[in-house]
């Protein structure tokens, strides 16, 4: 019987900025049941808020929902990122049930250890970022605006959410190359930390990659792709997309794909649960 999750990892919600897909995130957090919630950085975009404060009711509702669930017993770990690094000075403290940590080690049900951090620490290693084209600069801001505009139009005509950013990232060679280098940096860090894998966010690109027995997991974001990394009670990691049509994006590579016929009851209506191999996953990510 599997009607809840063991852990959920989300990052890059960028609450406080107009780009945040807050309705989808609020819906997701309302519907899922999980023992543990990791907020893996850039949840609140303090950088953007300094420029232009935008904090509508849905954004407030997300924060109060998380705090309410924390009070009700869900373990919440807030790991700040580069857009909310102000909170890094509060690492070690707990606010109404929300633990603030610089990073964390997550142990899965089957005993594997994953280092969890936002992932901006790899910026220096990866450097010369072709993703600067897409993340964190003016072009990226423009693309997000275009993305929101496009999706408002799509909703008006009854089409589901579609990520322009996701499309561009998989179709631009330089962006792919950057992502590959970023993944390598995280996998290398996992090796030197002697853990089974690395869980991060930051580059707004949900993906799994296994290399030399270690697993890279990126939980994606809630400004472009509306994705989360989840762990089932059996200890299997999966990526999901959540909007009008929730669906599984990928299951960790090398895992037995028994989940195809095993949608989580109540979480997904059965028909939307679709199989996707690691190779196909980036299109949706
Ligand atoms: Mn970031």
UniProtKB/TrEMBL annotation:
Q: Does the keyword Membrane apply?
A: yes
Family annotation (Gene3D superfamilies) = 3.60.21.10
Q: Which InterPro entries match?
A: Calcineurin-like_PHP (IPR004843), LpxH-like (IPR043461), Metallo-depent_PP-like (IPR029052)
Q: Which residue intervals define the domain Calcineurin-like phosphoesterase in the entry?
A: 6-205
Q: Which GO terms describe its cellular component?
A: membrane
User: Which keywords annotate this record?
Assistant: Cell inner membrane, Cell membrane, Manganese, Membrane, Metal-binding
A molecular function (GO) held by this record is: metal ion binding
Q: Indicate the secretion signal residues.
A: none
- Single GO biological process annotation from the record: lipid A biosynthetic process
Q: This chain belongs to which protein, by name?
A: Uncharacterized protein conserved in bacteria
Instruction: State the organism named in the record.
Output: Hahella chejuensis (strain KCTC 2396)
């Amino acid at each position: 019987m599997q009607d809840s999750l063991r852990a959920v990892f989300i990052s890059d919600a960028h609450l406080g900025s107009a780009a945040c897909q807050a309705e989808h995130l609020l819906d997701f957090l309302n519907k899922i049941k999980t023992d543990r919630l990791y907020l893996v950085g850039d949840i609140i975009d303090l950088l953007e808020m300094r420029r232009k404060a935008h904090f509508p009711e849905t954004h407030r509702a997300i924060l109060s929902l998380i705090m309410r669930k924390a009070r009700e017993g869900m373990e919440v770990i807030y790991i700040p990122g580069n857009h909310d690094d102000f909170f890094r000075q509060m690492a070690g403290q707990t606010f109404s049930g929300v633990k603030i940590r610089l990073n964390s080690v997550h142990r899965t049900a089957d005993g594997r250890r994953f280092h969890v951090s936002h992932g901006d620490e790899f910026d220096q290693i990866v450097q010369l970022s072709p993703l600067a084209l897409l993340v964190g600069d003016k072009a990226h801001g423009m693309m997000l605006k275009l993305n929101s505009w496009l999706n408002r139009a799509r909703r008006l005509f009854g089409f589901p959410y579609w990520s322009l950013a996701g499309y561009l990232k998989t179709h631009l060679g330089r962006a792919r190359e950057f992502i590959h280098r970023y993944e390598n940096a995280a996998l290398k860090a996992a090796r030197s930390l002697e853990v089974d894998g690395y869980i991060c966010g930051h580059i707004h690109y949900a993906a799994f990659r296994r290399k030399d027995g270690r697993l890279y997991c990126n939980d994606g974001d809630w400004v472009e792709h509306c994705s989360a990394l989840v762990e089932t009670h059996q200890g299997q990691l999966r990526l999901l997309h959540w909007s009008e049509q929730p669906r599984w994006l990928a299951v960790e590579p090398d895992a037995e794909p028994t989940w195809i016929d095993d949608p989580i009851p109540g979480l997904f209506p059965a028909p939307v649960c679709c199989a996707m191999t690691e190779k196909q996953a980036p299109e949706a990510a």
